[in-house]
Design a protein that fits this description.
By secondary structure, the protein is mainly alpha-helical. Helix content is 52%, strand content 4%. It has a two-stranded antiparallel ribbon with strand order 1-2.
Length: 225
C-alpha cells in the first residue's frame, strides 16, 4: 500500500502503520516473556532450557488438540512463564544438591502462587495467570496449591503439567540422572488419570511414539533414548 501525507504536519504516514505497531507490540510482549524466562534459568544451570522445552511440548499438544491460534499463543506464553515464581526462592534451596527438608519443600511449592502474584500486576499477562497458578495440580486432586481435581483444572495447566513433568523426568539434576525416553514414556502411561488428564497424556504419548526423536531437537546431544 502507498503512503499518504498529513497536510497539517506534512508528515509522511504509512497506511500500514497500525498493523506495524500491533506487530511491534506483540513482538515486544513475547520478548518480555522470554526475558523473564531467561532471568530465571540463568540462576540454575540444571534448569537451563527447561521452560523452552516445556513450551515446545505444550505447543505440540495444543496443535494436536486443534486449539485456536490465540489459545496456542497463550499456552506458549504460560509454559514459558510457568516457573517464574521460583525467582522468589532462595538459591540455597533452589540449588540444593541433597534432599529437601519439609520446610524447604513447602517453600518450593509456593512458586505457583508467587508466579501468579507477579503476573497479575501485568495487565497483558492476566490470561496467563490460571495456567501458571495451577500447573502443579493433579488430575486426582492431590496436587497444589488448591487441590483442584479433574477438568476443573484449567486446560492449559493440564497441558503444561504433562509437558513439565516429562521434561523434568528426562533432564539430569545434580542429585540424579535423567530417565530414559522409554522409562519416561512408561511413567506418563502409568499416571494417566492419576497425575495427568488421561486424554491429554495419551495425545502426548502418541506424539512421542510417532517420532521418538522429536523431543531430542530441544535437548543436550548426550541424551539417550
Amino acid at each position: 500500500m502507498g503512503r499518504t501525507y498529513d497536510k497539517r504536519t506534512n508528515y509522511k504516514k504509512s497506511q500500514k502503520e497500525p498493523l506495524d505497531i500491533a506487530d511491534l507490540l506483540e513482538k515486544t510482549h513475547f520478548e518480555t516473556i522470554m526475558a523473564f524466562s531467561e532471568a530465571l534459568e540463568a540462576r540454575d544451570q540444571y534448569t537451563a532450557g527447561h521452560s523452552r522445552r516445556v513450551m515446545e511440548y505444550s505447543k505440540s499438544i495444543g496443535q494436536r488438540m486443534k486449539l485456536d491460534k490465540q489459545e496456542i499463543e497463550d499456552l506458549r506464553r504460560s509454559a514459558l512463564l510457568h516457573d517464574i515464581g521460583k525467582i522468589g526462592i532462595p538459591d540455597i534451596i533452589l540449588k540444593k544438591q541433597t534432599k529437601l527438608t519439609g520446610e524447604e519443600y513447602a517453600i518450593i511449592k509456593s512458586h505457583p502462587e508467587t508466579g501468579a502474584a507477579i503476573l497479575k500486576y501485568i495487565k497483558s499477562f492476566k490470561d496467563l495467570v490460571p495456567a501458571v497458578y495451577h500447573h502443579h495440580e493433579r488430575f486426582d486432586g492431590e496436587g497444589y496449591p488448591e487441590g483442584v481435581k479433574g477438568t476443573a483444572i484449567p486446560l492449559h495447566a493440564r497441558i503444561i503439567a504433562i509437558a513439565d513433568t516429562f521434561d523434568a523426568m528426562t533432564s539430569s539434576r545434580s542429585y540424579r540422572k535423567a530417565l530414559s525416553f522409554r522409562t519416561a514414556l512408561s511413567e506418563l502411561e502409568r499416571n494417566k488419570g492419576i497425575q495427568f488428564d488421561p486424554d491429554i497424556a495419551e495425545i502426548f504419548i502418541e506424539i512421542l511414539q510417532e517420532s521418538p526423536y522429536y523431543f531430542t531437537r530441544f535437548r543436550e546431544p548426550e541424551y539417550y533414548l
